[in-house]
Amino acid sequence: MLRTVTATRYVTSLREGGSLPAIIEADDAGLYVVKFRGAGQGAKALIAELIAGELARAVGLRVPELVLVELDPALGRNEPDSEIRELLKASAGLNLGLDYLPGSVTFDPLAGPFPSAEEASTIVGFDAYVTNVDRTPKNPNMLSWHKDLWLIDHGAALYFHHSWEDWEARSQSRFGPIKDHVLLPWATALAAQESSMRERLTREVVERTVAAIPEEWLTSVESPFPTAHAHRAAYVTWLSRRVEALPAFLEEAARARAQLV
């Protein structure tokens, strides 16, 4: 289960993309990079962040701690920026925070530090699993912190849930966009990922992760499902069937890498 903290101070906006994440101080004295449910991408981006972040941790990758952040819209009443005031007002309730890593820098594929073949292959395989289109040289969404790679920003993953059209069939996708993955040149151990991911991404792990999604996120988004319970069950089904598709999308990643070298 994710911890829940209460936002006590709005520190600064990060002004990244159109979602206006911010550094927030919470009642545990911690600093968190918060993604707001009232941003343009809505609660579905937070659902993708939570699922992908926790499953990445399950396969052994480094992800800053994720917490649920309770936000009182009054927190922004003295904020001079009207856009930020409106964002905080629209984000009352639970939002998602990532532990702030002070001094971290964005991973540079030209300067490193570079990952091992095993780590790169695990990250490539995992991103293919969650259909993450947003780990490219232009936008790596990885931080280098104490010489280790940390994964961030998974809101673009699981993009099937924006429409849920043919979602069961799409769970078997070979995921062609993996060809643009920033770590593909280092991913020389893709063949070893099938058994490792299958062992770690059990149905129990998937169910536990999906169970952590706040019900208010599920009921605040458009979906074809009549209840939050059915909505959760669909995520579990898609993620479990995605494990069954491991051979196909890992083969696609290996094929894409072969074209690079």
TrEMBL record:
Keyword tags: Aminotransferase, Transferase
> From the Swiss-Prot or TrEMBL record, what is one GO molecular function term?
transaminase activity
**InterPro entries reported for this sequence:** HipA_2
Q: State the source organism's domain of life.
A: Bacteria
Query: Which residue range or ranges hold the HipA-like kinase domain?
Result: 14-229
Annotated protein name in UniProt = Aminotransferase class I and II
